[in-house]
Each structure stands twice: as C-alpha cells, then as structure tokens.
Amino acid sequence: MDLLINKDAKRFFMQWMLVLLAGAILTQILVYMNTVQLKHEMLKHDYELAGYLNNNYPHLAAELPLVFTADKTKNELEAGKALLETSGYKDSLQMRFIPVVNSVYQTNVIMNFIVSTGMSIFLFIVAFTFLKKHYKKIDRYQKEVYEIMNGSISTRLDDNEEGSLSKLAASINTVTASLHTHIEKEKHNRLFLKETLTNVSHQLKTPLSALAIYNEIMRGEHLDNEVIESFLKKSEGELERMQTLITNLLKLAKLDAGIIELHKSECVLNDLIKQATASFETRLIYEQKNFEMRTDGVVSYWCDKEWLLEAVSNLIKNAVEHTTARNCIEVHLEETPLMVKIAVYDDGEGIHPDDLNHVFKPFYRSRFSQDKQGTGIGLTLAKTIIEMHGGFISVESAIGKGTRFTIHLPKLTKL
C-alpha cells in the first residue's frame, strides 16, 4: 500500500494503533476491575442479608449457607419473585433504590468517561501533531516556491527526508531546475536577438540613407523630365515606407523579445495627445481633414511616455490613412475611477466585419483595402505597448460610418 511507504504516515498510524491498543488493554483491565467490584458488592450484600436473617431467625442459622450456595430451581425463582414483587422489588425498580447496582453503575460511568476522554485526548494529540507537521511542511513548500518564482532564493526546496511530501519536493526541484535552465537559455536568446536586431538595423539604415542621398543628388540635377521626376518621387515614397517599416519592425521585435523595460513616470495625457497629433498637422491640412480633441479636464497617468506616444501616434496614423478629404478625426480623453480611456474616432470608410478580428495581426492586409498604403504592423505595435502597460485596445466599426479604437488603461496599480 503506497500510503504505508510514507514515513510520516507510517509513524502516524503506528502511534494511532498504539493508542488504540493501550485503550483496548485499559478497557479489559476496567472490565476486570468492575467484575471484581461487582463480586465484592454482591458478597457484601449477601453477608448483610445473611446477618439480618441470622439475627431475626436464629433457628434458621444452620440452613442459611445453603440459601446462598445451593443451586436454585425455577420454581424457587418464581416463588421468590412473587414474594418480593409484593413489596415493590421488581425489574421496574430504579437503580438508585438498589445500592449495589447503583454503586457499580456510577463507578462504571466515571471510569468509562475517564478512559474515553483520555483516549480521545491522546488520539487528538497524535493527529494534531501529525497534521501540524504535515501542513507546516506544505506551507514551507508554498513559501519557498513563491520565493523561487520571485528569484529571492535558489531553485531548490530543502528537503532530504522520506515520504510523499519529500517526493513532491524533489519533483518541484526538478521542474524549477528545468525552468531555470529554460529561463537562462531564453535570456541568452533575447540578448542574441537584441544584438542581431541592432546589427541588422545599422546594416539596413546605411543603404537606405545612401539611396535617399542619391535621390537628393538626382533631384539637384534639375532634370526636365517628367518620367524621371515621377520615378524619383515614387522612389522617395518607397524609401520612406521602408524606413518606417524597418523602424517599426525593430520596435515590435524588441517588445516581443521582452528586452524593453518601461520607464514609467507621471505624464499629462493631454500634452501627449497634442504631441502625437503635431506630427500629422501638415498632412491633415494638405489632405483637407479635420481634427478635434475632446477632454473633460487634465488627465495624468503613470506610464512610459515615449512608448505610449508611439501607440497613440499609430492609432492616429491609422485613422489618417483610412479617411479622405473632409473626413473628421477625433481623439477623446476620458478618466473614470478605474480606467483612463483614449478613444480615436474617424468617420471614414470603416472596417469590414470580416476584418475586425484580424486588424491587430502583424502584416494583415484586408482584401477590401488593398489600395491603401501601410506597413501592417502599426496596430500590432500599439496593442503590444498598451498590453505592456496592463491595458487593452478595443475596436468598433461600421462600413461607411467610421471606426473607433479605444485604449483602456487601468488606474488600480502603479508599477
């Protein structure tokens, strides 16, 4: 039986059985003592009865021993019963009126109470001691597991004893050692990824900068050729798009790799939204689009300003890219006791219902908007940044009526 392999359980059952065995032996001793007492009381009662008869009926003295020692017949039993019942001496008579029986009963009650109480106390002590030690060890395991998770102690539970709990500790040690190995490997992978991304960034930026310079040189030649001018303009647009794509890819890769740490501080979100909008002012004017910001007052929030600015800017950029002339873009800033909400509205083309569940996937391009420019990772980047702040983004849209992206930031914690 597996339970008996457990050293603690085996000790517990042995102690329990010893207490029960001691109780059984003590019970037998009490039975013997009660029997001896009953014999003593019966003899005492017979001595008293013999003395009474001898004093009052001396002529029966020679026959009195036979009264108590001779075998009795059934007829004699019935005759004696009939005689004594006339005086109220019968089965229904209460024990307190029969001193011998009453004395034995009271002694038994007291002794049985003492024995049962003592056994119960001993059994309780044995069970309490076992469970206290058992759960104390479990509580220690739990505390040490939390400390391992927080990195405050080593990756091992200190337990070299036998038993099921010790086996559990060994299993936990195996798991934590494996996790520790994977964590260290992941740290090395992230460090390698960070270095790789940095190198790739420099390697890509250099040829892009060179191409941009070549374009500027060619524009400076004053070539009166509309075809060349058109090609140069398209080339500049594609180079800018590639630069944005590379920058966003590097940001997204760093966020996914977990090598970015947020540096949070108190930030006025009204100013952050104005800063995000400022980079699009020229484009809004050129494309004849209206912009409006609505707030109920000054709203401050504990966040990483640079990364939150990136997320808000991507949502505004998305709205700009999916609206046309005379469309309106609005940013609403709202504060509640539990949440801070930043909602970016537009009354543009809207998002097709088939695309709503996919808009945050990287590089996702809807079949309904293949003519739109974009890298396809702006919304993914915004979603990742907001989730790092402990919040989330929701989206609502209707074809031909517009779209609303809402950032939900919790106010319950300041981490």
From TrEMBL:
Keyword Kinase attributed: yes
Histidine kinase domain ranges (all copies): 199-413
Gene3D superfamilies registered for this protein in UniProt: 1.10.287.130, Histidine kinase-like ATPase, C-terminal domain (3.30.565.10)
UniProt GO cellular component terms: plasma membrane
EC number: 2.7.13.3
Alphabetized GO MF terms: ATP binding; phosphorelay sensor kinase activity
Subcellular location: Cell membrane
Sequence intervals crossing the membrane: 12-33, 109-131
Name of the featured protein: histidine kinase
Source organism per UniProt: Aneurinibacillus migulanus (Bacillus migulanus)
